[in-house]
Design a protein that fits this description.
heterotetramer; A: Methyltransferase, Methionine Synthase (B12-binding Domains), Chain A, domain 1; Rossmann fold; B: alpha/beta; TIM Barrel; globular
Chain lengths: ~220, ~450, ~450, ~220
């Protein structure tokens, strides 16, 4: 593989945005994702090759490390920053200016519930593994999910709840979604949930953490 | 406003369970922090929607919980306990709902005291509804008024102690935490959260004064416990969670500067700091709150507890009985152990066992080790103002962690070590001056908060 | 058959948690009773019917439990633990069902050991199906054969330790208990139960020998814990429950006379006696088994534990996680405390706190107090034969209670006191000779049991 | 009230069967329920008066004490023994030879479950408070309950279960009973149960202990 691409993938993996960025300490003063992408383009490496062989590779590596407990959320986010810096240069080469997405997922914390940290993490991890996530925020009514599905037909839906008293809203929400858009897959998560509860309310899957959710989703699109 | 310039407890030996410099009398014959550790039993609804239709059933749930706990207390010949009623959002949104439940619990507790002489007190924690909007409006608007009115009605309905898990500054902190952005973390805790807690507790204090009841305390749950949870799930470094723990102390201390007198709130693991600085009795949760969350601090959390809590458990059936009475029994046995040690004058040895059993396992435990607590507390009282205190707490915490790692007391994994270096570097770059930090906040997170919510001028 | 004529532990100081004279090696690197207390985590199905249709789901439940516990063990950097798989009736009736679950659990444990070095062992407890018929046929018949075959298949499937809660004699004891009939209680325990346990453990021992695994131990659960439960519900006097506890020791000891080597079964509160007499490591349950039953022995039960158990909890969801992993975490923290004390050489002080915290609260606790345990154990080993031992245990227990009441250590309520007198009188009338007692059994309970089940001749 | 009756009620309450019975110690050597009932009859006190004013009164007093935690199960049983001794003399005076019962209750531990101590206690307490209890034992199939109802029409039913895996049999059993004999009241109890579970399976009442069950039953027959 091209040396520049290898270096670039490392910059993404380790979150080295540009030459000025202080992290990681051992790469201080060296060129980052920004500079290396420019160089790669100058070297006439095809944009799709840069994207796939360097940027995606780097993201994938940090994602795997995260899955193995060898990286944290901030590592993912910083890698994403480096990736974004690189993408700025690649945008003109892609029609839509965006990398190809695996699909769309509409996410939200259900009605009455304001806990969103878990949901946000799921969002991040899914984004990191190539999904287009539409985040409806917290305290989201069934109607809002329906509206979002109207706007983004064929999306998957992910519901989050952290309270024993709001998790039951997942039931109506799932019901309404399935009634209005039959065939829509609805996934659920959040600390008080269980597989049993998921089965009871007729949702299509429960996941305890974003990693297993992402793995499952990758499975169904392949 | 009270200022704490020195430590109420300056010798680590005295930072111990059951004893606080300023015990709190409340409820039915309760005295907290005067030599005896009592259970603080918390509970919540099982999976059930709260609505007009289910309201009778909801009340029945709380009645059942109160009955079951009372029966257990009698069976165990308990000397006393505190009940925490932690409201759920609809109960604060409709404060008369929260009040109705408060009354049910209070009546049961009064009866228990009258018939069986078992001392007790009722803490009511209302939901901080202000968290609902982004950016949140903290000093005005519907959510704020409902929240304050819930305090008022709870007091009227028989609450002995009022508490809240307040959320000012969290709109920034949530984000900063994800990026491990120390500048954002310290500024949101030290400037924003500090200001909000100060204001909020002045409001609460006027209510508790009116009803002659107790202003308990606040908790950095949404900040430091979130970080702890995330570290527990492998999402954030433990050292970051430890740092946030220490950095959240000044923000919670602000409640005591503005009239709170304890018992502090169970999920506030900053309790030992509050006790060291103010002499206030504290409520702590540890291994016996496993029903509510996993923890790297199960034993060490007990070291300085005056109330010992299970944090929360749903009213579901286990083999022996319903979960609230089950966990009540567990707490009671834990407390028997604490109090027997005190009676036999071996409380320091027992405390040492609690400390030593966790300290090597996870660096977050270091933040609750008595000497470390005192070191960081000292650094805090030497500063004035929330921001300076927060920065000092973080720096001292970092220093303590460094020492612990260097001395081999704690072993850091490879990624923890690499994050250690990263955070060290970042900490050096955090602005020393509050104004500078504030400007930085405006620049980097300006769109996420409303300056008026903190009585700050809008810089733009 | 082994005879125990003297005590393995004759000094109360040595009857302490974590240390047994004859540690047991088993499973994946486990050594029990060699200085460290480990958790023994137990669990059961939530409300679910066991049938062909639900079988997949049942297996999935056990898989989930094993995964969750493993994750917790890793998160807590646990040194090791024992899992008890307590079968439910259909799993013993269809032994291949029990074996399938045993295999799932064993595989998970093997993996945990290989990947993370966490030591572990699997105890399988089968159901004593012989209890199904009245009068029960104990040495023959379908129920007996199924029970024994369940042992065999569990061993084949990977069990490291086998146990049972055997029921011989219970057909009389259940009734005698209700009438507080001491003659019936002592004869059913000392003659019938003793004979059945002896026979049964010879059978089990041939199986464990064949597979080179461990014959764990039996429990008087159906006798003494039933009495404890009934006393807890106000149905029987505490002093009677205490008496039954002591009187059940010889019957459980018979397992060790016939090849069991421990760890004893968690719900056998006669464990400390077994340890004192035989030097066998024991499993105990106390405050952290609150999920399974309430108890007047929450702390004192820990005094001599080598494994520390939660008895059993359904796989239901709590706020933090599923109940089995929740209680696993709780046990782990308890064990950290025990083991830290041992490391700091303050285990005796800690044990003293456990003892002192319960001893004044309920007379049942007295039966677990180390000096009392030794006194009664001594009375037992001085006798030969199950009946003589049982009567001696009961009399000595009564004597100890009398002393405790007289000295004011324990306060007896008015009805307890009046029952105390009644039982004292009755105890004096219990036949001293086994033959006489047996005749009395035939006369009074003859229709309720089958002499052949105990290899007794039918007198009529 | 007649002095003999007062004494007799005390004998029943305290379980003094006859002059030879050693309990209670402070009544040793004194006449018991046996002798005093004979005397009462000799004194021409009407049998119904003896039954109501002495025997029932004694049983009621011990029952109340039990309810207040001032007596134990063996106290109840011993009182019942004294009562039975007295009844031997009264039998000829009653048509059926039995005291008037409040009603019939069929009880059993459900299929697959062998725990019977709890059920037996419930039985005793109900008997003690005047109910006719038909005990079907343990491991009782739905069919057996139906058969018993055929034999004892109009009875109440009490189901007991101690295992999380057998409590679900209460559902079918309740169902079958209600289908076959509509209007039959089915009550449930046992350690793992809850009101919620009772509601779910459509039973008519859950009670945590026999005392509250007995109190409730007395309520519905009045
Ligand atoms: C932080 C926190 C808060 C913060 C919320 C901050 C925020 N912006 O989210 C604050 C302080 C505001 C708060 C408020 C309240 N909280 Co709160 N809170 C917590 C706490 C400590 C941690 C939650 C958390 O963020 N965990 C970390 C994240 C990463 O984990 P997670 O959410 O489980 O998400 C993970 C998985 O579940 C999964 N996941 C999540 N969603 C989804 C979705 C899909 C589709 C999938 C596949 C996966 C998935 O992936 C995530 C990453 O692994 C918990 C304690 C606990 N044990 O969980 C209590 C807790 C949830 N809160 C509780 C309570 C009671 C409240 C309040 C009512 C308190 C009060 N009286 O004021 C209010 C309610 C506010 C409201 N209307 O919702 C109780 C709930 C009790 C109950 N009856 O259910 C808990 C359990 C604490 C307790 N007392 O025991 N809380
Ligand atoms: C004694 C006992 C036994 C004895 C049973 C003796 C007997 N003849 O009943 C023996 C040793 C035989 C036994 C065997 C088993 N048991 Co068992 N047993 C117990 C124990 C310790 C006490 C039960 C008891 O008698 N309590 C005292 C009575 C008075 O209380 P009660 O039954 O709850 O009844 C009261 C109320 O509930 C109510 N009530 C009861 N019925 C009714 C009915 C109505 C209509 C009403 C209104 C009220 C009512 O009134 C009663 C008086 O107040 C419990 C532990 C516990 N915490 O309960 C385990 C327990 C129930 N057993 C358990 C288990 C697992 C078993 C076995 C499978 C063990 C094994 N592996 O061998 C076998 C199963 C046998 C079978 N097929 O049923 C588990 C159940 C777990 C689960 N999944 O549900 C428990 C919880 C113990 C544990 N491990 O935690 N057991």
């Amino acid at each position: 593989m091209h040396d520049i691409l290898e270096q670039l993938s490392i910059c993404v993996e380790r979150g080295k945005v540009d030459i000025k960025s202080p992290f990681p300490a051992d790469m201080k003063g060296r060129e980052g994702a920004d500079e290396l992408t420019r160089k790669a383009i100058e070297n006439k490496i095809p944009a799709s090759k840069i994207l796939n062989d360097a940027l995606m590779t780097g993201m994938q590596r940090i994602g795997e490390k995260f899955g193995q407990g060898k990286a944290f959320i901030p590592d993912l986010l910083i890698a994403a920053k480096a990736m974004n810096a690189a993408m700025e240069h690649l945008k003109p080469f892609f029609e839509s200016g965006e990398a190809k997405h695996k699909g769309k997922i509409i996410m939200g914390t259900v009605s009455g519930d304001l806990h969103d940290i878990g949901k946000n993490i799921v969002k991040m991890v899914l984004k990191g593994s190539g999904w287009d996530v539409i985040d409806l925020g917290v305290d989201v009514s069934s109607q809002k999910f329906i509206d979002a599905l109207a706007e983004h037909p064929g999306s998957y839906v992910g519901l989050s709840a952290l309270l024993t008293t709001t998790m039951l809203h997942m039931q109506d929400t799932t019901q309404v979604i399935k009634d209005t858009y039959p065939g829509t897959k609805v996934f659920v998560g959040g600390a008080p949930l269980s597989q049993e509860f998921c089965d009871k309310i007729g949702a299509d899957g429960y996941f305890r953490d974003p990693q297993s959710f992402a793995k499952y989703l990758s499975g169904i699109v392949q | 406003m009270k200022k704490f310039n020195s430590l109420a407890i300056s010798n680590a030996d005295d930072l111990i369970f059951g004893n606080a410099q300023n015990p709190v009398k409340c409820g039915n014959g309760m005295v907290i922090g005067d030599g005896v550790v009592f259970p603080e039993i918390n509970f919540t609804l099982p999976s059930i929607k709260i609505s007009g239709e289910t309201w009778k059933e909801v009340l029945q749930q709380y009645r059942e919980i109160a009955d079951n706990i009372s029966r257990r207390a009698r069976a165990l010949k308990a000397p006393g306990f505190v009940v925490e009623f932690e409201q759920l959002p609809p109960m604060t949104q409709n404060p008369q709902m929260g009040a109705e439940i408060t009354e049910i619990l209070k009546n049961a507790l009064n009866q228990l005291y009258q018939n069986d002489g078992i001392k007790n007190a009722l803490r009511v924690t209302v939901v901080d509804l202000r968290d609902a909007d982004r950016p949140p409006q903290l000093r005005d608007g519907n959510a704020c008024h409902q929240t304050l009115s819930a305090f008022e009605l709870s007091a009227q309905a028989g609450a002995d102690i009022l508490s809240i898990e307040s959320v000012g500054g969290k709109e920034i902190h949530d984000q900063a935490l994800m990026y491990a952005d120390l500048k954002g973390i310290i500024a949101s805790l030290g400037i924003l959260a500090y200001r909000d807690v100060s204001w909020l507790w002045q409001q609460i204090k006027t209510i508790t004064n009116r009803y002659n009841i107790i202003a308990g305390g606040d908790t950095a749950c949404g900040f430091a416990n979130t970080a702890m949870q995330l570290a527990g799930q492998g999402m954030l470094p433990d050292i970051l969670a430890a740092l946030v723990r220490a950095a959240s102390v000044p923000r919670s201390l602000a409640a005591y500067e503005n009239g709170a007198i304890g018992p502090s709130k169970d999920c506030a693991y900053e309790g030992p700091y509050i006790k060291a600085i103010t002499g206030t009795p504290i409520s702590m949760e540890g291994k016996s709150s496993c029903c509510a969350h996993f923890s790297p601090l199960g034993n060490i959390a007990a070291a300085a507890a005056d109330l010992w809590s299970n944090e929360s458990v749903q009213n579901v059936r286990l083999l022996s009985g319903n979960a609230p009475e089950v966990f009540y029994e567990l707490l009671e046995y834990d407390c028997r152990l604490f109090n027997t040690a005190t009676k036999h004058n071996t409380q320091r040895q027992l405390r040492e066992l609690f400390v030593q059993s966790d300290i090597r396992q996870n660096i977050q435990a270091l933040m609750l080790e008595p000497e470390t607590v005192l070191k960081i507390s000292r650094a805090i009282v030497e500063q004035t103002g929330g921001y300076n205190q927060t920065l000092a707490a973080a720096k001292t915490a970092f220093h303590c962690m460094q020492q612990a790692a260097d001395s081999g007391l704690v072993h850091l994994s490879e990624i923890e070590s690499s994050w250690f270096l990263k955070l060290k570097q970042e900490l050096d770059e955090v602005p020393v001056l509050e104004d500078e930090a504030l400007n930085w906040l405006y620049e980097n997170y300006g769109s996420l908060f409303i300056p008026e919510s903190y009585n700050l001028k809008n810089l733009v």
